[in-house]
Amino acid sequence: MRRSTILVPTLLIGLAIGGLAISQIIAAINFGGGSVSNAPWNNNSGWAGMMGQAVGPGGASSTNGNGWGNAMGSMMNGFSRQVGTVKPSSAERDMNASLQNATVDKANNSITYAGQSVKIVVLGSPMMTGADDRFVIGGLVNPTIHVPKGAQVAVELVNEDTGMPHGFEIMQARPPYAYMSMMQGGIYPGSFIAPIPAANKDQYPMATTTFTATQSGEYNYICQYPGHAAQGMYGQVLVG
Questions:
Q1: pLDDT digits over 7-52, tens only?
Q2: What angle do CA 135, 171, 154 make, to 5 degrees?
Q3: Number of domains in the chain
Q4: What is the pTM of this model?
Q5: H or E stretch covering 22
């Protein structure tokens, strides 16, 4: 990554954590506990937290009974909790396989996925394409993605950037984005990958998430690492 500023100030990260904690507490008071449905906000069932977990007074839907800890930890606990690595050749094969049931429209910079089982392979700042601080999907930079309503969607994020972590989430907030873009709105349930480490020339960090596209609408996918969405690392997702 050709960039003079790589380290994020500790103070700003601390403010982000504090702001997220406050938002979770307010959400729990306003929306109550319980498991989260397929909607980002649900007055009867609780709150799909900023980090993608259900959050309520009892830590609803958390795996360890502590929704507050999960919500804070998934963003700031090192990086994404389940990070693997892939070789460059494997990342290319995964991308090609993911496009078998998709239509790539270069003229409109869009990709339309078909069927009820969709896999989206997302490359973070692949240096060979010159797409600094951008996503590349199907050879397109920050394309608009069309997903059928009801599809089971798997997202595979591969970070090819040798100088910077990158993450992925689909959220309701629209651009322009602030430096702390993760503070700007609820995410589409399940569509969150915490930032994963920078790559080296032989191994690319990789993480995945899955969700069901039950909510029709217009959303945006972003890199939630501080400053990246503000610099243009985002694209649109249309579910329907």
A1: 443 344 444 434 433 333 222 222 222 222 222 322 222 223 333 3
A2: 65
A3: 2
A4: 0.71
A5: helix 10-31
137 shares its domain with 56: no
Q: Which domain holds residue 154?
A: 84-239
Residues written for the chain:
240
Please count the other Cβ atoms lying within 10 Å of the Cβ belonging to residue 199. Answer: 28
Report DSSP state, residue 78.
S
SS3 94: helix
Whole-number average pLDDT of the chain: 74
Please give the Cα distance from 95 to 120 (Å, whole number). Answer: 8
**Bond preceding residue 176 cis, omega within 30 of 0:** yes
Q: Of 43, 76, 109, which residue constitutes the final position of a domain?
A: 76
Between β-strands 234-239 and 144-147, what pairing exists: parallel, antiparallel or unpaired? parallel
